[in-house]
């Protein structure tokens, strides 16, 4: 296992790191910085090894990995001190991204309580409210084949029943359709008119669509409703955490704006 350890790419980097560190030491002289290997660092190093190798490292392997980490940390600090990270967009983006992760994780805080999630929901109820829906059927009167399809709808409704109307590519009956779905199939003007019609056993119209005119019968209407808390608790938690992360980033950036003098 120890022999295999020193054949890993991470270890190879460590060997190169040692050589670079010696070179930098010869050029710049010994430094006075302190590197602290905390329990959190050891845990992360051991966890990374286990994720890569699929097994828990032995104490000897952990010490070797820590040595490699210390060497890499020294090289990194020397490289940064020499300004080798300056002008490198890849390094810059990576450091910005990592800083954003740190800020977001710190801003996330402990998991929210149910009362906090319910308060979050109360402030944004409209975002989670289910839209109104209607169940309806229609008969189509084509603007392509009729001189005045609206007048034809009025005439057949006055007679009592619209009959079959003209052939139509879409369904004649829709169940629990949202306004968005009605607009997608028939156009905005039809959807607006549809959701203003009362529930009735009688046919109503004419109602204009993107294709022509329609006789419509609204069988059922469901008003906008807020789902039970239990049904949307997972979505609420995800949105709550995203809100916290975004708020932490906004606060952090605003603090930086106060500390930096930006000249354009």
SSE arrangement:
Elements: H1 2-5, H2 9-28, H3 39-53, H4 59-81, H5 89-108, H6 114-123, H7 125-128, E1 133-142, H8 149-159, E2 173-178, H9 179-186, H10 188-194, E3 204-208, E4 212-222, H11 229-259
Antiparallel strand pairs: 1-2, 1-4, 3-4
Please tell me about this protein's structure:
This protein has eleven helices and four strands, in the order H-H-H-H-H-H-H-E-H-E-H-H-E-E-H. Mean pLDDT is 82; it is low at 1-31. A four-stranded antiparallel beta sheet has the order 2-1-4-3. A hairpin with a 3-residue loop joins strand 3 (204-208) and strand 4. With 264 residues, it is of the alpha+beta class. It folds into three domains: 2-84, no CATH class; 86-127 and 227-264, no CATH class; 130-222, Chitinase A, domain 3 (Roll).
Helix content: 55-70%
- Contiguous low-pLDDT stretches (5 residues minimum) are 1-31
Strand fraction: 5-15%
Query: In this structure, how is the largest beta sheet organized?
Result: 4 strands, antiparallel
Nearest-integer average pLDDT: 82
* Global Rg: 34 Å
Instruction: Decide which structural class fits the backbone.
Output: alpha+beta
Order of helices and strands: HHHHHHHEHEHHEEH
- Please state the overall shape, judged from the principal axes of the Cα atoms: elongated
**What is the distance, rounded to the nearest whole angstrom, between the alpha carbons of the first and last residues?**
57 Å
Number of E strands? 4
Strand order of the largest sheet: 2-1-4-3
User: Which CATH C-level class of the largest domain is it?
Assistant: Alpha Beta
Overall tally of structural domains: 3
What is the helix tally?
11
- Classify the fold: give the CATH topology of the largest domain: Chitinase A, domain 3
CATH architecture of the largest domain: Roll
């Amino acid at each position: 296992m120890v022999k295999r350890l020193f054949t890993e790419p991470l270890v190879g980097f460590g060997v190169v790191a040692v050589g670079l560190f010696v070179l930098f030491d010869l050029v710049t002289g010994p430094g006075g910085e302190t590197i602290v290997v905390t329990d959190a660092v050891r845990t992360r190093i051991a966890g990374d090894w286990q994720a890569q190798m699929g097994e828990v490292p032995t104490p000897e392997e952990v010490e070797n990995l820590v040595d490699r980490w210390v060497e890499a940390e020294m090289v990194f600090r020397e490289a940064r001190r020499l300004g080798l990270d300056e002008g490198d967009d890849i390094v810059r983006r990576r450091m910005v991204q990592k800083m954003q992760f740190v800020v977001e994780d710190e801003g996330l805080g402990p998991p929210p309580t149910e009362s906090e999630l319910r308060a979050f929901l109360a402030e944004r109820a409209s975002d989670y409210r289910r839209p109104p829906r209607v169940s309806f059927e229609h008969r189509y009167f084509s603007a392509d084949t009729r001189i005045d399809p609206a007048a034809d709808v009025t005439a057949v409704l006055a007679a009592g029943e619209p009959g079959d109307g003209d052939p139509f590519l879409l369904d004649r009956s829709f169940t629990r359709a949202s306004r968005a779905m009605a607009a997608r199939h028939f156009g905005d003007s039809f959807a607006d008119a549809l959701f203003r019609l009362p529930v009735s056993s009688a046919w109503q119209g004419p109602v204009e669509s993107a294709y022509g005119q329609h006789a419509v019968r609204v069988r059922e209407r469901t008003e906008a409703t807020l789902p039970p808390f239990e049904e949307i608790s997972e979505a609420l938690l995800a949105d709550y955490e995203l809100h916290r992360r975004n708020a932490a980033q906004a606060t952090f950036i605003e603090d930086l704006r106060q500390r930096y003098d930006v000249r354009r």
